[in-house]
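Researcher: We are triaging several targets before committing to wet-lab work. For this one, the compound of interest is zinc ion. I'm pasting the protein sequence and the ligand SMILES. What I need is the predicted three-dimensional arrangement of the protein with the ligand bound, expressed as structure tokens, so it can go straight into our comparison scripts without reformatting.
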Amino acid sequence: MEYQRIKYGEPFQIRRRLGDLFRDIVRIKGVEYERGKGFIVRDYYALANLNKILIRMGLILTPMVECAVCRRSVDCEKCNFTDVCLKDVSICLCDECVSREDIVKKYLTVSKESLHRYLK
Ligand SMILES: [Zn+2]
């Protein structure tokens, strides 16, 4: 199985020959195609539906995932939880942060801070 990273709302190329499936793909709600740019996936639901088609060709699209605590990008392919993960999250915890002793406290602090920023 091949994994390809994408960002919601940003165009990307699908590394497969799509043929007739192209029509099925652009019919998915939240998936668009822009000539010369590529496909755009709007959200989690659109991505899940798109992956149902692509998985048959051995491809899974995974959204760019960033660590909620340190904001570094998380490498899903090296993750220990890959078998149980739905692979449709955009926020997670990196290996380093997840092994911190104070991770729960740290995570709550960071969440509270971003909530305050949001409410301002
Ligand atoms: Zn981290």
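Researcher: Any quick observations?
Model: Residues 103-119 form the longest helix (17 residues).
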